[in-house]
Design goal:
InterPro entries: AAA+_ATPase, ABC_transporter-like_ATP-bd, P-loop_NTPase. The protein is of the alpha/beta class. The chain contains nine helices and ten strands. Bound molecules: adenosine-5'-triphosphate.
Length: about 250
């Protein structure tokens, strides 16, 4: 039977009178690559912050890795990885110092950190960059490194908020190879993106419009339902009626 690692029921976040995330209900399964799409301001980051235990919902319920988002936020944080375009590594530490630092935060032993950093650097082909400052690396490398660090402690789920923003298609493709490898290892991937080619790489996608999930299915089923051949067009058909966009 498929294991459910995220389960929400009418999850809602209000800011005063404004409903940023409006009653979303969905499930994500173990090892799935789940795309969380929506136009700017649709409510994706707000929803993701609640799932990561960083923001308390106004109403509804959610369990992440089996833990409750109201009462068990510390357990949630220990079982997830998180990466956003805005939060990255320490630019003034070297590659290997960053790996050591985050390994320590995640509670890995020194021996484990050493083995993991060697295999991580080999996987990324970054052995000769180990002693370089992260700040001196190209953005695409930083993002790949940042992802690898976010899964260093082998979390059950990794949340990625627009992880590939601003990099070229080749680098984005390489980044997705890392995502596939992590998913193969049983890590569930929850990813927001504005790139529709990336949406195609997901097992299932939800599309949010003005705080609500308007569609949720495989890319293939969504294209059939909206009678089109591209995710771009599915997205456009759903999002064109959106009242919010920034
Ligand atoms: N702390 C807050 N107080 C008031 N309004 C907020 C707050 N955080 C977010 N919002 C509003 O909630 C709405 C949803 O924002 P959110 O950042 O979740 O959207 P998003 O789908 O992640 O958009 P983007 O793709 O631009 O990151 C926006 O209209 C935003 O202005």
């Amino acid at each position: 039977m498929t294991e459910t690692v995220i389960k929400t029921d009418k999850l809602t976040k209000r800011f005063g009178d404004f409903i940023a995330t409006n009653g979303i209900t969905f499930e994500v399964h173990k090892g799935e690559i789940f795309g969380f799409l929506g136009a700017n301001g649709a409510g994706k980051t707000t929803a993701m912050r609640m799932l990561c235990g960083l923001s308390k919902p106004s109403s509804g319920s959610a369990q992440v890795a089996g833990f409750d988002v109201y009462k068990q936020t510390e357990q949630i944080k220990r079982n997830i990885g998180y990466m956003s375009q805005k939060f990255s590594l320490y630019e003034d530490l070297t590659v290997v110092e960053n790996i050591r630092f985050f390994g320590g935060i995640y509670g890995l032993s020194n021996a484990d950190i050493k083995t993991k950093s060697e295999s991580l650097l080999a996987q990324l082909g970054m052995e000769s960059e180990a002693k370089k400052l992260v700040g001196s690396l190209p953005l695409g490398w930083k993002q790949k490194l940042s992802f690898s660090v976010a899964v260093l402690h082998r979390p059950k789920i990794v949340f990625l908020d627009e992880p590939t923003g601003g990099v070229d298609p080749v680098t984005r493709r390489q980044f997705w190879n890392l995502i596939y490898a992590a998913a193969q290892d049983g890590i569930t991937i929850f990813v927001t993106t504005h790139y529709m080619d990336e949406a195609e790489y997901c097992n299932r996608i939800s599309i949010m419009v003005d705080g609500k999930i308007e569609a949720l299915d495989t890319p293939r089923a969504l294209k059939q339902r909206y009678n089109t051949t591209t995710m771009d067009d599915v997205f456009y058909q759903l999002a064109r009626g959106a009242k919010r966009s920034e």
